Amino acid sequence: MPHALPNPVPQTRPIRATAAALLLAALAFPAAAQDRIPSNCFALAQAPLAPVETLWRASIGQPIDRAHVRIRYIDHASFAIEAEGGILAVTDYTGYIGNPDVVPDVVTMNNAHSTHWTSNPDPRIPHVLPGWPTDGQPAFHELDLGAMLVRNVTTDTRGPFGEGARADGNSIFVFEAGGLCIGHLGHLHQIPDDAQYASIGRLDVVMVPVDGGYTMSTEAMAEVVSRLRASVVIPMHWFSGASLVTFLDEMEGQFQVVEVGGPDLELSLQDLPGSPTIMVLEPEFIP
């Protein structure tokens, strides 16, 4: 059954849901992470939390508390992820996010295609994290910004014209903030193996390329999404409404679909949907 594309007029849809997480308080965290709510990426058990009403609209730049994360779909595969204190990350950064006065604290990049990176990042950005090998070594990042932890898990990519595999050519970046575990699959070309899934952990939110071919087939990507067990799935890397609708049709029955009607949303651990939900955002640069 076809799904209508998001209405350009912002819609507010309250969702009553329960979510669960037993935080690993017994684990030791670096000093810089003491103020960050631990994520449940590697939680061993879960306990129910009280249901709450959720308002899904937000705007980059407004103050945000430590229990929430703001996500804005910028363009293509680029998202702005904002945590307490205005800590801002941008995924698959191409050099342009809109407002030139907004300078992220960290940007991540993948270079399978030119639309996922830039060779000339803004020099004001303190942390630029490439997702591909450098000096013959796979990318390895574990950056602690206090309110946000950024880490990566590498996967192989095909060559730029579809030829042969490039070992560790892509990085799945994981952002831990506000108690949430948020994953961005980058330009994923392969179904992760068990070791890679284990390194990613259990995601609460995942950004998924749904082009149906440039990355992976719709069926293969649906398998990855199901395995990651995220509460919120945000489609990205769709070149037309047709590829997005194909993905939504493939996931029908497994996920609810919420058309946000705008570029951004605000989430916390306690107000995640009670059942797996695809949140369709409309890309828009930061004003």
Average pLDDT taken over every residue:
79
The total count of helices amounts to 3
Largest sheet: 8 strands, mixed
Structural class from helices and strands? Answer: mainly beta
Distance between the termini: 35 Å
Strand proportion: 25-35%
Question: Helicity level, as a percent range?
Answer: 10-25%
Brief description of this entry?
The chain is mainly beta and 287 residues long. It has one domain (55-280): Metallo-beta-lactamase, Chain A, CATH 3.60.15.
Characterise the protein shown here:
There is one protein chain. The protein is built from 3 helices and 14 strands. By secondary structure, the chain is mainly β. It has a single domain, classed as Metallo-beta-lactamase, Chain A. It has an 8-stranded mixed sheet. The radius of gyration is 18 Å and the shape is globular. The protein starts with 67 loop residues before the first strand and ends in a 7-residue tail after the last strand. Mean pLDDT is 79; it is low at 1-31 and 44-59.
